[in-house]
Amino acid sequence: EINSIHEEMKKYIGSNNNNIRVSRLNEDDNTEIFLVVIGESVRKDYLSVYGYPLNTTPFLNTANGIFIDGLVAAGPNTEQSLTRTLFKAYPEKNKIDWEINFVSLAKKSEYETYWVSNQGTSEYGDNIFSALAGTTDKSKFLKKGPYYTSFNDDDHMLPIVSEIINKNSNKKVVFVHMMGSHEPICSQINDFKSNFKLNNQAGCYVASIEKLDLFIKKLTELMKGKKYKLMYFSDHGLSVEPDRIFHDLGGLLQEYQVPLFYLAPDEKKHILVKKVISGVNLIDLYSTFINIKTNVTNENYTFYYADKLPDNSNPIIYWKKYRRLSDLVKNQPPITDIEVNSASVNIKHQ
After folding, report:
1. pLDDT value for 175
2. Full-prediction pTM beyond 0.85?
């Protein structure tokens, strides 16, 4: 299926679809940098900002912005999820429009576009997203082959991002694709000094969430003095057992429940919005995030008015075919008996 999708995509990726009409949503928006951070394998229920009892997200816990509690990933792995998130999907037609995607909409809006990735460039669907990255004005991958060729730290992307944002004063959309919490999970920690003991797989997974929190903090520090907006979402979650972290592929509810949030320097409050949103509609939310409205996206999807969206308690997901979230039968609460290096982190975020 991945090979078939890749062949179809190659026919259309990068095409200039003249049927897409784009205009500014707010002419007074003076944002210089729109930063889109694509997370990897992150379950929402392991972030203390969403209620996890261990303090895994000390920065995000108090960061000013809008946190959506209810994003449902389009699929249970990177390829099946992001092909229906970064590209325009029509579930009712079982079709993906490859010409309408996160990059093409930014380019239609005359933004400079950049892609920085710690993912692979080939195999397992990586070639789909490296092809999308190739349609930006400039892309940079830390790896030269499949995702498993090395365990580069996500922090190695920070100097590249810094160079991009300081390159000139033109308006930019910068995509940062993390390796995040992908298995083998303990190999992703590298030399990060965690507050949690890495004595089993679950401990490493919790540490990877803590590491994500620090990565987002470092990105915001790079942006100091800039007029920026940051949007983060994860592609999917994983099954997390004490000694095994893996793609359950299809049946686990928590594998689809992922974080989504928005940060900006002019935000004055920390707002949590409980609203179920399908990953298929993230392209609509992304469009208003980069301050555009189009004839192929729904401008009602905005961070500011997410609480006004119609309730969608049973959204569409994809695994081998389109189905509903209610088809999932497995349930796996997060593991909370993780050993810590300091008693101070074992405090539930209020």
Report:
1. 98
2. yes
